[in-house]
Amino acid sequence: MEQLYQATLDKWGTDAQYDQMVEECAELIIALKHFRRGKVSEQVVIDELADVTLMLGQLSWMFGPEQVDEAVQKKLQKLNTLLESPNPQ
Question: How far is Cα 36 from Cα 50, in angstroms, rounded to an integer?
Answer without folding.
Answer: 19
